[in-house]
Amino acid sequence: MADVGAPAPPGSGPATRLLDGRPGVDLSAVGRRAARIGGPALAVTYLSLLVLLPLAALLSNALSGGPAAFWRAVTQPEAVAALELTLVASLIVALVNSVAGLAIAWVLVRDQFRGKALVSALIDLPFALPTVVAGLTLLALYGPDSPFGVNLAGTRLGIGCALAFVTLPFCVRSVQPVLAELDRETEEAAASLGAKNTQVVRRIVLPSIAPAVLAGAGLAFARAVGEFGSVVLISGNLPFKTEVASSWIFSLSQSGDLSAASAVSVVLVLISLSVLLAIGWMRRRFDAPETV
Amino acid sequence: MHPRLQSVFVRPFPPRRRVRAGLLLVPALAVGLVVTGTGPAGAQGGSVALVAYSTPKPAYSVLATDFAKTKAGQGVTISPSFGPSGTQATSVTDGLPADVVNFSLATDMAKLVKAGIVSSSWDKGPTKGMVTDSIVSFVVRKGNPKHITTWADLVKSGVQVITPNVFSSGSAKWNLMAAYGAQLSQGKSKAQALAYLTTLLHHAVAQPASASAALQTFLAGQGDVLLDYEDDALYAQHQGEPITIVTPPQTILIENPIAVTKTAGPSAKAFVAYLLSPAGQKVWGQQGYRPVLPSVAATFHFPQPKVLFKIDKFGGWTLVNKQFFDPQTGLVAHIEQSLGTSTASS
Amino acid sequence: MTGRWRWPLRIGALGYLAVLVALPVGTVFYRAFDHGLAAAWDAITTTDALHALWLTVLVACIAVPLDTIFGVGVSLILARHRFPGAWLLDAFVDIPLALSPVVIGLSLILVYGKTGWFGNWLAARGITVIFSVPGIVMASAAVALPYVVREVLPVLQELGTEQEQAARTLGAGPWAVFRRITLPNIRRGLAYGITLTTARVLGEFGAVAIVSGAIAGKTETLTLYISDSIENLDPAGAYTGAVVLALFALAVLTVLTVTDRRRESWHGRAAK
Lengths: 292, 346, 272
Fold this sequence. Notes:
The complex is a heterotrimer of chains A (about 290), B (about 350) and C (about 270).
Chain A: H1 17-20, H2 30-62, H3 66-75, H4 77-110, H5 116-122, H6 125-128, H7 131-142, H8 156-181, H9 184-192, H10 197-226, H11 229-235, H12 245-254, H13 258-290
Helix pairs in contact in A: 2-13, 3-13, 4-8, 4-10, 4-12, 7-8, 7-11, 8-10, 8-11, 9-10, 10-13, 12-13
Chain B: H1 3-10, H2 16-23, H3 25-37, E1 47-53, H4 57-69, E2 77-83, H5 85-93, E3 100-102, H6 106-114, E4 130-141, H7 151-154, E5 161-162, H8 170-185, H9 190-202, E6 204-206, H10 211-219, E7 225-229, H11 230-238, E8 243-246, E9 250-260, H12 266-276, H13 278-286, E10 290-291, H14 294-297, E11 307-309, H15 317-325, H16 331-343
Parallel strand pairs in B: 1-2, 1-3, 5-6, 5-7, 9-11
Antiparallel strand pairs in B: 3-9, 4-7, 4-8, 4-9, 4-10
Helix pairs in contact in B: 5-6, 8-9, 9-16
Chain C: H1 3-32, H2 36-44, H3 47-80, H4 86-92, H5 95-98, H6 101-112, H7 119-124, H8 133-143, H9 146-159, H10 162-169, H11 174-203, H12 206-212, H13 222-231, H14 235-271
Helix pairs in contact in C: 1-14, 2-14, 3-8, 3-9, 3-11, 3-13, 6-8, 6-12, 8-12, 9-11, 10-11, 11-14, 13-14
């Protein structure tokens, strides 16, 4: 059961070894061989054109003033404060939304009630709303003129609220398909064998969906780190208090200090990348024993 | 056999639809390429590419219509792009097609001169390259419930100020230089004026990323007073927003530069000539901008502050930007830092 | 199941959703029609608005299929093959999320702009990328890149390879295996992935604002038009535009769910 000694390579359960591990079994089709090389090559090209090359340009721009200038840009008090705030807020939001997203996905998959289709349709709308509109609406609802008497304007809670709004779809949509595909027979079998509800959830459901929950949390975190439009209106954008990193980056680029803007972005990307890698690693830990 | 497998081999699955769905991509891509070909070109013949900062958009829609009615403007279409002044200037250096450029401050024009896109003699005309004037005003809630009339009123206890973030907004720079200059013109020392800026920023409950975001924040109910361009405030009032505009006793004269690019054709030059003509200036005035032509300005009755100073008072934008608004070493960066570190713990 | 937990869970989940999503979205709809249907209609049928709408649809029609093909491909590669650096590819896919859209826009200019790395090369061939439709497509495709992968990959991993192997043993070619086994199995995740991608492409602002130049009637997308409307204190135009975007996203979701359901019932019947 606990055959996790060697960390499994990413994305491949032990079962795929049959397919990939033995040369000579499956290689009769030349086309497939070409596809195997061509596919990844195409994917990497696409990724390079859209992401990797721009990122490399960003990095070279960040270092264009020399390492000292890079260091100055990222250790400047206002930059540090913004980075700190962004990362902490994003972590908290990712955690809160993971729990909430799991609950919502559960209700959508397992529960039956009227208007479920409507609720389900609602989930993705935060994505389609331009962030400017989202920010404006959140300010109207939870700002100084709030009809509910809740004033989050200029507070860190306001930032959390905006980030939670834009990242919720990830946390729901990552879990939902996996939950829907989950084999209920196992659960029923466990229940018929006398397992309690909580036991079924803990032993059977949670391990199966944990990778998906983590994936959703990772996406939410990453998106929260880069979010700008929906946050700045409600946050008030006060330096050192409610100024998020992407807003500081925007300021730097507006001031014409593009290399400092690039430097802060690079740091932001590195940090979120390491968080994503950590999450990916945890995800694989969950995956490994399960496919045995 | 697994049911899924069974379906593969037993039940014919309609595959053609998939293929067709894939084929849909081809026309989509083709359309994309066709559009590429017709992308924005420089102004040949009847089209003038205008690149401007955000605020004058409503004014330009009137001006473009009126220009088309003039002899020189017949058959000329204005193809405008609006955005934050700094972004717009950078975009032009990055290749955004432009025949006429209009920014909120001269610094942005300097970027284009440096890039060789605008002639260095752009400011040699009768209006020194400026197309409109404005001032920094106080925008307060309708009826001015907090009785805010002077700069000193802004820093009274309990007064909440909104001014955009100085590092991302050109408007915020005008605001702070107005505040600074107002102190100097009241006989205060430079150190006292800087101390005033510190107190003022301490009263800032929001520093939105742009002038527009600041206005949105204020209209949503936050803050007691917003520092804003007079023209922007007049436009908001005209749109029926419940605000009152207060002209401070001392304030800065905002001058917005305009220029044609080196590659601009005759229609672009005709457009700028129209904008600077009495007819064009009259429209600017009706749209809330202070005309730069004295003859036209005299026909409007804009409130006159007791003391009106220009950015030249502090050595011009290049110097001011370096001294005050460098995000790493500027005086304002230090102020923000001192405020931040003193209040972040609270 | 979980009878005792049903109500607390339902109320908690739906309550959170109501406060965080339903209320704001509802407000947008309400404000769009606040000044009457006619005002809303007028706001969205101006020449510039219509062009912006058309451009947005065009960009979505190009960027979404590209991202979908990429997403499914990468998911298959990551789930079914082992190769050095797979973990890097896995992580790199998420980078666009972590980058502020403004930065994505700036970095695209650093590569494809007039003074960028490929600026001269592109200019020599008469290709304009930045401040033109290809740039907008690239920016939109970049910000929405991760979604299909993130939706499809977990399902593929959860799925395992038993069925695919069996099919191959029985003589099915790779394309047949993909179409008849893999695709039906991932369809739900894929549908969500496409919906998210579409929604994101439609709503994207920061990156597009930088690379498009926002030339009215030429490179102004609907989100740019909306932000313009807000700046000019024309909330009717802004909110109506936002509603159009939301409806568009809803339509995509509905189409995908309906086809999903139809196939579901087919399959269900065939399988039983």
